[in-house]
Each structure stands twice: as C-alpha cells, then as structure tokens.
Amino acid sequence: MTHRQRLSMIAVTLLAALGLAAVGTAPAAAAPPAAAPGTTAVPSAPVTGTFTDAAGGTGTFAGSFTPTKFSARDGRLMATGTLTGTLTDAAGGTVGTASQAVTAPAVIAQATCDILDLVLGPLHLDLLGLVVDLNQLHLVIDAVSGPGNLLGNLLCAIAGLLDGTPSAGVLAAILNALLALLGQL
Fold first, then answer.
1. Is the pLDDT of residue 41 over 70?
2. In terms of domains, do 171 and 146 share one?
C-alpha cells in the first residue's frame, strides 16, 4: 500500500468516525466552483436527503461532501466543504444538480468504551470429590454511548476521565493539518 493510499484510508476512516452531517442543503444558483488542484486525495462522504418537489411529492438528493476546512464555532466542530449532487423529483426525473460550498456541524459517531476485558485460564477444582473443570473464559464488557444510553454514557465518561478530550478548536487544527497533507499528494 502506498503512502498516498494509507493517508487516504486514514482520512476516510476519520471522516466516517466523525459522521459528517449535512444540513440546510439547497441547489446552487451560481456555476459550480472550479476544483482546486491537488484536492483529489481528499475523500468525500456520501450525502442523501429528501425535499418537497414542485408537484408536492417527495424528491431525493444524492451526492457527496468533500471537506476543505474545519473550524470551531461556539465550542462545536464545523466542517466546510463542497456539496455536490443530483436532485430527483418523485416521478424519477432529474430536477437539477447542486455544487456549492456549505458549512455543517461535524458530530462524533456513537462510540463504545472498553470497561472490562477479563481472561481466565482453564480451571480445575476438586472439592472433596466434587470435580469442576472450566475451560478458558473470556469476558468482555463494553459500554455504548449515545442518546438514551444513560448507563453507557456514564461509564464511558468515567472511563475517559483522564483521557484529556481535545476541544473543538484543537480537533479542527488537527483535521486541517490532515487535509493539508492530503492536498500535497
């Protein structure tokens, strides 16, 4: 695997982990912006959605979001980039295409935290004629954080007390450095 492929895979994994969410998308009125040279190494995230078409039906949007910059706004991580895609009406006809710059919140996807990973080797007990043989036992307990997972959120917060979670500004700086590296490939 080449250096470029490794960096692209890291970026794709990072973007998937962030779970980029595009909001407030609308077709652009202006011509699509020209692609900057050297940006082909930056991976895109798929974006889909629905809208109400002119006949009152439910149309669909299918496209992709390519990040160009990350920033922190009011303590939240924001992704700025180019959204491109196709608008299709309820009858299946193409209404138009969109290619415009958008800024959307970047949210961290649901995570799990390792709470306990216990491995007990084989066990042989002889208790006054009662023999108990137990093969290897592997117990794994994970906490899943996310909306509505009260115990998972609490245990993940306790497990990560000493982790030093970076602020949105620090995370934006790291992601911008990664984008700059990918742009140089």
1. no
2. no
Domain residue limits at 132:
112-159
Report the phi/psi class of residue 171: left, alpha or beta, with left for phi > 0 and alpha for psi in -120 to 50.
alpha
Question: Strand pairing partners for 91?
Answer: none
Q: Tell me the C-alpha to C-alpha distance, in Å, between residue 175 and each of 14, 18, 77, 143.
A: 9, 11, 10, 27
Q: What digits encode the pLDDT tens for the residues 98-145?
A: 899 999 888 766 677 888 888 888 888 888 889 988 888 888 888 888
> How far is residue 52's CA from residue 132's CA, in Å, rounded to a whole number?
67
Q: Which two tokens stand for residue 20?
A: 């980029």
Q: Tell me the whole-structure pTM to 2 decimals.
A: 0.50
The single-letter code of the amino acid at 42 is: V
Does 116 share its domain with 104?
no
Same domain, 57 and 136: no
pLDDT tens digits, one per residue of 96-111:
998 999 998 887 666 7
